[in-house]
Amino acid sequence: MRTPLSASLGLEFPLFAFSHCRDVVAAVTRAGGLGVLGAVYFTPDELETELRWLDAHTDGKPYGVDVVMPASVSTSVNEVSAKDSARTSMEETLKSYIPAKHRDFVEGILDKYEVPELPADGDHSHQLLGWTDATARPQVEVALDHPIALLASALGPLPADIVELAHRKNVRTAGLASSAHHARKQVECGVDIIVAQGTEAGGHTGEISTMVLIPEVVDAVGDTPVLAAGGIGNGRQVAAAMALGAQGAWTGSIWLTVAEADTDPRVVPKLLAASSRDTVRSRALTGKPARQLRTDWIDAWESEDSPGALPMPLQYMLVSEAHRRISRAGRTELMGMPVGQIVGSMTDVRPVREVIYQLVEEYAAAVERLGAITEA
């Protein structure tokens, strides 16, 4: 199952796993894949803590970090960034750009479901996070101070200076692309690996299906290795990705329901019961289209009464405290998370190692079956 890319990274299997949970990242890496920690929800200090833990729990095997550096954001962000890069000042200024009608709409949903305010001593922070170039750069600095093997950008191409800095530290770079055009732009920035992500994927994703996208991207980027993402949850799908020209699989959703995951236990049953039709691409979370579990919250934002989502990062700044209130109140009908269409196949809770080995066994069986057809 080794490919030139996995061999160059020292991996046993060409399986890459994105997760916001350090335990999942470590478990995938120890099992022979490459775990990638999503950094967007961490402050630089928190990320430092997470990476120190990973350094101590990955047995010296390679792992990666994923940041968000969107190429296009609200013009307000660029204006504020030019004036003041201080995180707290930038956050307070940007909050003033959120229209009153949007705040009223959020409060209307919370009132309908009787969601109380946070207590006075509750957590009212973490509203801007790493959704901008200015706030992601400190995360990159922290990440590159650790022995990571990969620095990836989940949204937008990594700036050329970041790619150069990573290369000076012998760190590979990767960029997610939802079209051949986006893939070529990533290569122009010097990115080493393209993650071609079909619309089936969870989180920020485009409109082209994985089966169509992978060969388009492979043909567009020449010798640059491509990883397939979107709708990959078993070994047959990994084999299909390889047949389309990919050198490995980038997975995410399937790790939300493993035993090591820190997914909210009230959301896990919803994921296990969901079908492949129970996800929707919506701007309700971040301001950019992201596939997520359909909930009453999403339906409200997609309704005719909605004022429409704000541009990134203002939308997340608008709704982040509301999500904490919803979680604290336990209103599960409003609780969801980014997840791909593969959720329909996520029906039980198993340890990471078991999931990895099943992927490998299913892949081997698929290749053997194709080999028999070819011989016949």
From TrEMBL:
<protein>
    <submittedName>
        <fullName>2-nitropropane dioxygenase NPD</fullName>
    </submittedName>
</protein>
<dbReference type="Pfam" id="PF03060">
    <property type="entry name" value="NMO"/>
</dbReference>
<dbReference type="InterPro" id="IPR013785">
    <property type="entry name" value="Aldolase_TIM"/>
</dbReference>
<keyword id="KW-0223">Dioxygenase</keyword>
<dbReference type="GO" id="GO:0051213">
    <property type="term" value="F:dioxygenase activity"/>
</dbReference>
<keyword id="KW-0285">Flavoprotein</keyword>
<keyword id="KW-0288">FMN</keyword>
<dbReference type="GO" id="GO:0018580">
    <property type="term" value="F:nitronate monooxygenase activity"/>
</dbReference>
<dbReference type="InterPro" id="IPR004136">
    <property type="entry name" value="NMO"/>
</dbReference>
<keyword id="KW-0560">Oxidoreductase</keyword>
